[in-house]
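Hi V.,

You were right to ask for the full record rather than a summary. Here it is.
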Amino acid sequence: MSDEPHDSTDDEDEDDPWIVAACPVGPELAAQIAGMAELDWEDIGITRKAMTDAGWRPNGGYLGDLNERAYTPAGHFVYGDDCFAMPFAYEYYVHPDRAMSEDFWGALPGWQGLVHPPTGAFGSQLEAVVAQFTALLGPPDHDVTHERRPGPNYRWRYRIWRRGDNALVVAPGLDGFSYSQFEHAFVQIRPLPADAPLPPVTGLPDFFSW
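Predicted structure:
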């Protein structure tokens, strides 16, 4: 994953609408994810059964058109070959000749797109999900910020809970579907041995990529 965000340029049309699209993470879904946080996500059989038991729709032995492994009833896409990765918000703008030529995420079932969102709309989606997991698991074990470059909009804050030999994180990152032009917010469960230190802050974007 490239550690560089999209830079605004003078040739962007000021009328191109910025959008924050989100699929809420409610208390039931957060509790389900927290309950899966100590599973071996490298064991597809175990994780597929857990998702099925939770009422999610796994794709069986096949990946979907966007490489998703499963869908939550709320409409989230679940990714990851050896981890759990679930974006719940995207921030982007639409332009016919750019990475996002149409409002794909905002039109999906369960997702809501806010055009020309107020300042902080993307961050508020992150904070709402952090609050859900804090209510379930207590304060994060790690709360660190990766300042990728100067500017208030380019800081990535990672809230990380250690769960057995895994780490559960809520954080922003670069969106691969836009070729890293825009950002998404995600929940992820990734193997991290209980006795292993957290990777350096500068390495977290790569560590939590999928």
